[in-house]
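Let's do one together. I've listed all components of the complex below, 818 residues spread over two lines.
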Amino acid sequence: MTQATSISEIVILNEDSVTLPKGYKAGGMHCGIKKKRLDLGYIVSEVPATVAGVYTTNIFQAAPLLVTQESIAKDNKIQAILVNSGNANACTGEQGLKDAYDMQKGFAAELGIQEHLVAVTSTGVIGELLPMDKVNTGIKQILDIENESELLFKQAILTTDTCIKQIAVQIQIDGKSVSIGGAAKGSGMIHPNMATMLGFVTTDANIAHEDLLFALKDVTNQTFNMITVDGDTSTNDMVLVMANGLAENNQLTKEHPEWDVFKEGLKIVCESLAKKIARDGEGATKLVEVQVDGAFSADAAKAVGKSIISSNLVKTAIYGTDPNWGRIVTAAGYSGVPLEPNKLKVSIGPFTVFENGLPSTFSEVEVKEYLELETVKILVELNQGDQSATAWGCDLTYDYVKINASYRT
Amino acid sequence: MTQATSISEIVILNEDSVTLPKGYKAGGMHCGIKKKRLDLGYIVSEVPATVAGVYTTNIFQAAPLLVTQESIAKDNKIQAILVNSGNANACTGEQGLKDAYDMQKGFAAELGIQEHLVAVTSTGVIGELLPMDKVNTGIKQILDIENESELLFKQAILTTDTCIKQIAVQIQIDGKSVSIGGAAKGSGMIHPNMATMLGFVTTDANIAHEDLLFALKDVTNQTFNMITVDGDTSTNDMVLVMANGLAENNQLTKEHPEWDVFKEGLKIVCESLAKKIARDGEGATKLVEVQVDGAFSADAAKAVGKSIISSNLVKTAIYGTDPNWGRIVTAAGYSGVPLEPNKLKVSIGPFTVFENGLPSTFSEVEVKEYLELETVKILVELNQGDQSATAWGCDLTYDYVKINASYRT
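Okay, and this is what the predicted structure of the assembly comes out as:
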């Protein structure tokens, strides 16, 4: 929270999601890409919405990402998002590209809107062609009233996820109630710079494209790009924010007096989704939060946080409730940031375990008990400046190996 | 091998190690740092030897590394190496530094040589002080004849290793027989830019310090720095090469006509040790070799190779004998190298699994059978240039999690 005033103006609604903002509906169904679970979902706005997106940095961007980015580039507006799970439509060549266009075209026809107003996105196995007969049949049925449900949408986007991820906030802008809702999926192949994750955020705010994109990029760097499950950056990651303006506030820009309130609301939504993705990391039993304070730059703080949260040795130690601070210090030490060993302080929860270059005296039993909690917080104080960053991840368990040794075959 | 002639001149001796070169002896014993296993070892040369070392890039360098580097800087010669396992003497502050100096001083006194001619090094748990009473008692006994044995040395340097790692080669320089022998330890916390590993190489070659260091750095970048087990770079990594000149060849320099033979011999020793460390990665069941060809630069080839060999998803897939080429392509895609997706070709063993941006037709059963072998080779052809690199690692298994969830406590 950037200021005290903004806190009182932001209402957090844990049970709501993408259809809380005015003018949105969502739905989901089983079309047959997966054996049984839901695999096709949509969000539709009553009117075209201003859109901003951030995408994977992987060179091998999946076909739907190429199609969606091209479409958004036309006039920075979309009215609908179509998602399938179970198949990533990645590394699928010309046919994959054609399939992504066909998904867009088919759903636009059902909605009676222009094709470029439909964003398409996919998640699942890489390198297999979509079963387009099933997808096309699904597209013809998905707008049927029995499929309309925010819950069905949230279920339809999942892969190895064990739970749905949602959050919404309500804020006041120009005396109007503005809502921001989000839903996400993501569990494996999660790493900074976009994860194997999809994030969908809707708002009824009235906001200019360039400002929405500015806010999304800034917030993403502090939230989605600060989580890791396994260090693998997927081909399909995407976060889309739609803003349809139905809240009728004066258009938000960086100069608007309540700009900070909007951005804080967007950050709460993205941070909540990011943490839920980290907690639901494949095989994870715990959410791990690494806060780095006292860095000489924000990038240095991020680098140290990411290095620790990505360390397999730190992750397995936390799984084993082992207060192995040496692995935390080691991971900080190879982050590439010029730390000063004698200034470093490391705490696990309320317990100081390392200070001034030396191990602290602490109760192994107490720290072990703390590590049994479902959320583990590590604080690393560099004492070199005043910049901070927070990274989120999870522990590394037998189940991670199990899930990933046999995901595909 | 750089040239056909050098192959015929290099004899590889798999059963020999650091005492094959003239004038070296080695030994090991149990002094009490560990409960039962050997934990103190030495190598001694009859005469002071030219030395070259490479060290961890971790900011938190352990005390013995600081002491050894300072000593070597005096005149680039050492005559002895003292190693303990079971305790890394890292993050131990002033007392740790004093303990490292005391180890050096004590062993120098036993040998009757100057203190700076003794290199000290440690491996094991971080953040605990050495039990110096036990170490000092050990130092007084270790030169006893019953402890003198190359095998005991190789055992004394191990931690979570499941086997000793050794290799030796014999070459001809100026018509003289020159030997190079090596022993190493390393199993976890293994990553490019030096791993939790110690490597000890001895040779009786006559060679100038600066040329030995040049050769070691170049060879290390192609061998020890191309292995990974878990992406964690330790505080204690070190490779030392001693060259005592007893082979009586003319002094080797980069201009010596047989320079390439020496360098190739050194490379064979280092590559063999590096592969043995990767194969013995904690919990590993397989050695994985990733060869990258056709890169526009050697650094690009290395970056792609390291990215693939470090991917938890690739490593678990190999453990599960899953021909999941999508994860290999994905890891190449986030390496940071500007690849051209449509030029990429990926092979698993003799089977092409991805070509021209598309999956190839292959027999899942045959590739699965190949993945059951103890050595798995992945070839990635970028088709962007003529540079190559090879990286080595291992699979990620339940046992890795087991070992690291409970290593310390």
